Amino acid sequence: MTLLLISNWLYNTLYILYLLLVASSIFVVISENRNPSKSLAWILALMFLPVVGLVLYLFFGQSLRNERMLSKQNRLLLQASNKPPKVDLDSLHLSDNCRRLLTLCHKLGHASYYPGNDVRMYIKGHEKFADLIADLRSAERFIHMQYFIFRDDQLGSQIRDELVAAVQRGVEVRVLFDDMGSWTVRRRFFRDMQKKGVDVHPFMRVAFPNPSLRINYRNHRKIVVIDGKIGYIGGMNVADRYVNGDDDHSWRDTHLRIEGPAVHGLQLSFAVDWSYECKTLLSGDFYFPQIEPTGDKGIQIITSGPIGGWESIALMCQKIVSMARRYVYIQTPYFLPTDTLINVLSMAALSGIDVRIMIPNRPDSIILRWGSFSYIAQMLQAGVKIFLYLPGVMHAKTIVADDELVSIGSANFDFRSFEHNFETNALVYNAELALRVKTDFHNDATECQEVNASDWQERPWAQKVCESVVRLISPVL
Fold first, then answer.
1. Is 220 part of the annotated catalytic residue set?
2. Catalytic residue at 297?
3. Does the annotation mark 364 as catalytic?
4. Catalytic residue among 297, 397, 420, 438
5. pTM, two decimal places
6. Which of the residues 178, 402, 414, 440 is marked catalytic?
7. How far apart are CA 240 and CA 237, in angstroms?
8. From 128, 222, 255, 438, the catalytic residue
9. pLDDT tens per residue across span 128-176
């Protein structure tokens, strides 16, 4: 009898604690003032899916919007270190639309405009990594490297050896990798780097048990800064497949090498993430040295993430599409746009703008393939041209518009990149680079299948069902 009473008491206590936890979670969801449909979805899940709803919320529902990446004091120190040239917008050879875009991005995230940069663009992985390795070998002061995926394969081992060699000649080397993005990598690989002097850390490590799991928020950035004077940004991770492909499929991506003042923007992005993860501030002239102009390209470095008040890259994309007067070409591995972007793309196409979107016919995820395909019919109805890349995985993340500006970086055209991931894009205001990206788009289009609206309606019903189901969960993919 005593055992039964204890059992009932324990059950009732746990049940009350569970109800209090659910109630407090619902209160948090309501108080965060999120999108009403998302808030309602989480409230219903918490109320009517016992245990499962709470687990899903702990893994995927917690918001970081009210957190801070930096203290106010550290932010002021970094802003003092980053000294972009003072620029009179009226003196720039930019269209009025580009000036408005520049102003928008500056107000969203204090994205400075850096004139006088030289840019080299890569669409082949072996060329990018050959230049990167050469730059690593020439480093004299520091190397800062940040990748979503850092594999322990042939390329990853070669990069590791170069970093260790840099440490041995007195160079400071810091590496951030995403804990989930690199979860298949043997931890011994990173521990060996650490033992040999490379300061390497996972970003938002997923450790069990943890009452505050943040598995849903990943650092998707791909940034390298060398001596504060050379920078890399784009879509390529450190993995053999970006050089040699995999499973008989090539990987088509786009990456930039930047020399000039805009490298400070990349260094600022890395410094913020390093401070957030490692509690050490990288500021001052050593990490932000004086950089003389090296070219004619103006650049803004746009960062976005789940922490902060604005979804900066999503708003940047909306502005680029809405201000286009002739054309907008988009390349992305995953196409899962928000409702706002669907409307902006549709309005642009319906008003006569040449809107083209290129996605892989077979991306690296069948689930995301179905999710991306679920939006095609709606885009075709509005007059958007859809191209399915056939030779392999189209992994580039580029937007080019009106022969005057280009966005290249880590952000996909999807919910995850816009709302959940830490991302960084370079916005380049330059006709020469815009024409190069436009030409590459046309060249890639020769290896694509352009989707025909009537043929698309004839696809198998089973595929349509899969697309519709996946679309329901696309906001958390």
1. yes
2. no
3. no
4. 397
5. 0.89
6. 402
7. 9
8. 222
9. 999 999 999 999 999 999 999 999 999 999 999 999 999 999 999 999 9
